[in-house]
Fold this protein.
Amino acid sequence: MLWHTYRVLSRKNAPAQRPHGPSLSRLGRHLRYDTLTTMQLQPTQSEILLTEDPRRLPSFADVFHGERPVEIEIGCGKGKFLIARALEEIDINFLGIDVVWKWMKFGVARSKKRELSNIRFIKADARELIRFGLASESVSVFHIYFPDPWPKRRHRKRRLITGEFMALLHSRLVPNGLIELATDYEDYYLQMKRAVVQSGVNWSRVDESANHRLFDGMRKTNYELKYESAGRTLHYVELEKQNGESP
Ligand SMILES: C[S@@+](CC[C@H](N)C(=O)[O-])C[C@H]1O[C@@H](n2cnc3c(N)ncnc32)[C@H](O)[C@@H]1O
């Protein structure tokens, strides 16, 4: 399978310019890797899925065992929520994406320890990965919980949730697919609602809630638990794609 031959590139041995696409640095500094070795990924190690170029992400059929619905968590951190779901929902495949390896490695280690076969992690900038690496209508749920709020005005342009990003996610969702959003930051919540409108997409359903998780109320993320116990107001938004709508 393709992922057997995936290589973990070091910055030292990464090519400066790729023959069929932009350089690694143009794709974003977050696509650099923390290891200095070249590694063959074995099936038992396949929770770690690393690629030097999001355009070459293999198909889900090559990555996972079996054709099943795929749920993706963007900014999964240590993967607490995704691992809990993977343990319970054995007929669903899960992919965790985070730009920072420091926390995600704990999720990888836990998944290996529990010998989960339906979860993978990838270290990448989700914007690049989703634009260049994911096929249209391939994902059943995108989970985005407590994305970095970038509270300073001059940093707000760094926020993940924009109308453009919502439209991109919509194109990758299967009909009736879902986007799940959560934030404790009021201003970001308002931006999320604007982004839904700015996406220019006719969502079949947009639900909102305060302090009540709309999707899988049994499981929570690390930040969710932390903010909940601090007594903060948690805003949740759930979007559903229309049935049969083309991207
Ligand atoms: C505040 S933490 C929330 C972590 C987790 N979702 C939770 O609720 O516990 C935000 C996470 O998003 C990740 N992140 C930020 N920008 C990202 C991007 N462009 N692509 C992937 N992950 C990103 C960060 O590295 C961080 O782990």
Remarks:
- The longest helix spans residues 101-113.
